[in-house]
Amino acid sequence: MKPRLFAKFAGFFFPLCVEACIPLIAAEREQIMLIRFTVENFLSFNQRIDFNMIASNEANLNHHIIKGKSENDIDLLRTSIIYGTNASGKSNFIKAMEFARHFIVNGVPKNENIEVHHFKLDKRQQPSRFEFEFRYQSKQYAYGFVIDKKQVNEEWLFEIGHQSEVSIFERSQNGIRFNFAYEILSKIAKQELLYEANHTRKNLLFLTNCKEREIEQFEMIYKWFDEVLNIILPTSKPVNIAIQIHTDFKMFFSHILKSFDLGINQINFDTINFEKTTQIPETIKEKVRKNFPYGENKAYFVPTSEFFVIEEDSAGQLKASKLTTNRSDEDNDLVAFEISEESDGTQRLIDFIPMLIGLSQGKVFVVDEIESSLHALLIKKLFDFMLNSQIYVNMESQLIATTHEIFLLDVKKLFRKDEIWFIKKRHNRESRLYSLAYA
């Protein structure tokens, strides 16, 4: 199952400071952009649909593009908006991406079926197909798989260049074939790799098995799905988002919140005892303890009815800070507010702040129904902030969102034509996807 050929990509650089003198992370950044996602025979998608972030020749809003460094390099878009009416299938598109990501990152237990949902109106009951093409560390990869409820039928990993493609491994029902001449495979014992291939369960991806078995050569591919690609559903909270922190990250947090003109004069982070507080449910505490990136100078964001930032202290223990806001009364005195006392729109925007920080650190975020609990003007401000703020200049991060709000389809001031996609249902209840640039 071979992917298409595309150009190689050049490197890029990052700003050393951002507006209002708020520093970003000093750590080295990696190249991480999504190029293409395809899905076939999943939920309302019967025929293969192809979504991509490749820029057209349109001259409008050129700062929305991460340009290649040579004539052979692909220009990639920083944002895309996917429009569809209710029940058109736009949420199914996000569910397809989330299902594929979850299956890669978590796998399924032994002897259990794969909970894949085929297009039910096709009596042939063909397997489902998923593929991602992405840029990572100056190289472009295509990774995908074909599955049914019982097993992985196909799986492949290619490196794609401008004029050639290199198979790293290809899996079929006859086994896994490796290209041992490829550089990352040449660093591992051949017999070890063959052993792991032969002992990968039928219902488990080889890439997932490599993570479980700590085969480091494929860590960078797995890491893209686990750490770079983030998917936010209308009701989800970014409990598992861990971002790199620095000494002034709370100032950075404050700067983002104030940029949206919500009438908030000041924010505070009040330290509380992580282990003793009852404001964070024990189930979430346990998840944080289990998954916290100890020793990596990162923070976890935990939004419940309130909003907490979890960090590691110098002794390696977890500590929590609770976010509160201050607003001015009629006498210009500051009045403290709990996050639960703020409006639904303000609370939802606060939920998005870890995403905005993550975008400043080179991640890919996919948001379903971005208008959920947000006023139209706030959505426009959110995109405007990400596309025009100096914080994100030259940053190879991406924001992809679905919406049913037609006001966002502004092809002069807000988006380029190639950033706008449409999903609609056909007469046979099948969803189709197409770009405004090629309509």
TrEMBL record:
Coiled coil: none annotated. GO terms for molecular function: ATP binding; ATP hydrolysis activity. Residues 81-410 form the ATPase AAA-type core domain. InterPro entries: ATPase_AAA_core, P-loop_NTPase. It comes from the Bacteria. Pfam families: AAA_21. SUPFAM superfamilies: P-loop containing nucleoside triphosphate hydrolases (SSF52540). This is Abortive phage resistance protein. It comes from Candidatus Thiomargarita nelsonii. The lineage of its organism: Bacteria, Pseudomonadati, Pseudomonadota, Gammaproteobacteria, Thiotrichales.
